[in-house]
Write a structure and sequence with these properties.
The chain has 370 residues and is an alpha+beta fold. The protein has three domains: 73 residues, no CATH class; 136 residues, Butyryl-CoA Dehydrogenase, subunit A, domain 2 (Beta Barrel); 141 residues, Butyryl-CoA Dehydrogenase, subunit A, domain 3 (Up-down Bundle), CATH 1.20.140.10. Helix content is 53%, strand content 15%. The longest helix is centred in the middle third of the chain and has 38 residues.
């Protein structure tokens, strides 16, 4: 399979790289990490320069990969305001696309996806947030946890339970678009996270929040399938985060090894580490690009997508850790310490590595391409 990019995409990659190198300074990256503050000015700059172009998913992937290689916290921050857009794009009404997505695409609004619950974790089918239909509105009560953009989003694509269905837990779930300014909606920012502190994560509570019935995405009872479809897309972009983080850690480690001279770079154990880092990055990138080529041609393979996401998360953590080992004491005040902290989340969000293994094995047993 040929993964040579067109000249247009190569030029776009260079444009993104130059933006990141100019705007993601070490001082800025350190500041937003320490202050745990969302860099909204960078989001607006990235939007103005067209760096997150959802009309072309390859461009989205390239932006994520390149920006995360320079700084993961800032890179994820400027590409996450669109999180959950695919749910509305694929299954939402024209009204929802116009009312909500147009505001995000114009840079006016920030959105997010609210699925995870305090007692549910990776168990999406266990969602207990209730939405009762009363006339021309739904009344929503419940809570969500670890919601990206939760306290800065203008609206959230939210998984709710509208009925008990036929007794199967994944039935009876629906998706609503909920305005965060609604009465009864509260978001508490979570602080002290291990990594990606430039992004905002919140605990959401909803008490009798009224949502117009027209804010239902697709059909009642189909929410589980909509969210699973979304994860099959978003896992590609998380894999791109992993490739970027790993590449950035490797680049720093390689530069450090060269700077220390032959007495250090000539050691076999150092060469072995560099070779293993580079090999894992190459393999992860190839699997991710293959998974993306299926998805972007409307032939997604969940097994390969989950392989890419699992590999990318584990590769990012492995390479960041090995880079720290090579740096030694120099890592204490440098970028590598922050990059290592940022890498860990990739083994957790959008499905833990264990969940990905379940997806892979179940699809293989059903005869998936992989």
């Amino acid at each position: 399979m040929d993964f040579k990019f067109s000249e247009e995409l190569n030029q776009f990659r260079e444009k993104v790289r130059k933006f990141g190198q100019k705007e993601f300074t070490p001082e800025r990256a350190r500041k937003f990490d320490l202050e745990e503050k969302y860099p909204d000015e960078l989001r607006k700059l990235a939007y103005q320069q067209g760096l997150v172009d959802y009309s072309d998913p390859w461009k989205v992937m390239i932006s994520i990969e390149e920006l995360c290689s320079i700084d993961p916290g800032l890179g994820i921050s400027v590409t996450i305001p669109y999180f959950g857009a695919e749910v509305i794009l694929l299954f939402g009404s024209d009204m929802l696309k116009e009312k909500y997505l147009s505001r995000v695409n114009s840079g006016e609004a920030i959105m997010g996806l609210a699925v995870t619950e305090p007692s549910g974790g990776s168990d999406v089918a266990g969602s207990t947030t209730r939405a009762e239909k009363k006339g021309d509105k739904y009344v929503v009560s419940g809570s969500k946890m670890f919601i990206s953009n939760g306290n800065i989003a203008d609206f959230l694509v939210t998984l709710v339970r509208t009925s008990e269905g036929d007794g199967k837990r994944h039935h009876g779930l629906s998706v609503l678009v909920i305005d965060t300014g609604s009465t009864g909606f509260n978001a508490n920012k979570l602080t002290g996270k291990l990594g990606v502190r430039a992004t905002t994560t919140a605990e959401i509570s909803m008490q009798n929040v009224e949502v117009p019935a027209e804010n239902l995405v697709g059909e009642e009872g189909k929410g589980f399938y909509y969210i699973m479809t979304f994860f099959n897309i978003s896992r590609i972009f998380v894999a791109a985060q992993g490739i970027g983080i790993a590449q950035g850690a490797y680049n720093r480690a390689l530069e450090l090894v060269k700077k220390r001279g032959e007495s250090f770079s000539g050691k076999e154990e150092v060469q072995f580490i560099l070779a293993e880092m580079a090999t894992k990055i190459k393999a992860t990138r190839l699997v991710t690009y293959e998974a993306a080529s299926y998805l972007f041609n409307f032939e997604p393979d969940p097994a390969i997508t989950s392989m890419a996401k699992q590999m990318a998360g584990e590769t990012a953590v492995f390479v960041a850790e090995k880079a720290l080992e090579l740096a030694g004491i120099e890592a204490v005040d440098g970028d590598l310490e922050r990059i290592f902290r940022d890498a860990k989340i990739l083994e957790i969000w959008e499905g833990t590595s264990e969940i990905e293994k379940l997806v892979i094995s179940r699809n293989l047993l059903k005869g998936g391409k992989a």
